[in-house]
Amino acid sequence: MASRVYQMGTIVSRVNHLLQTGVLKERPLWLDVVEAFPPDVFPKHNQTPEGGRAPVIAYPEDELKRKFYDNYVIVKQPEKCVSLFEEKPEVTSVCSR
């Protein structure tokens, strides 16, 4: 049977417990800030947003990209992959160019 102990307490109390038991070796950078300025209400892991659904996040460039991809057919080129480990990738998407 699985344990639900990880669900009890706030994220701060759980991280403090992990630090005390030695599971986490280094103190997270954000922990001091959250302890100094705690939120009014800590979010719960199973908390649903008000209204039942998460809000749609749309940026102004999303509409431009949508129009671009509607107008131009993009040929897939499998040999040109973008590496997520490089600071500045060698290959940029057609839309970004």
Task: Describe the secondary-structure layout.
Elements: H1 11-21, H2 29-36, H3 60-71
What's the end-to-end separation, in Å? Answer: 53 Å
Cα radius of gyration in angstroms: 22 Å
Mean pLDDT: 76
Largest sheet: none
Helix content: 25-40%
- Detail the poorly predicted runs: none
Put simply, the count of helices is 3
Structural class of the helix and strand makeup? mainly alpha
Q: What series of H and E elements makes up the topology?
A: HHH
The total strand number stands at: 0
Strand portion: under 5%
Task: Estimate the global geometry from the Cα principal axes.
Answer: elongated
Pfam families: MRP-S23
Organism: Geodia barretti
Subcellular location: Mitochondrion
GO molecular function, one term: structural constituent of ribosome
Q: Care to describe what's here?
A:
This protein is mainly alpha-helical and 97 residues long. It is 32% helix and 0% strand. It has helices at residues 11-21, 29-36, 60-71. The model has no long low-confidence stretch (mean pLDDT 76).
In short:
By secondary structure, this protein is mainly α.
Keywords:
single chain; 97 residues; mainly alpha; 3 helices; 32% helix
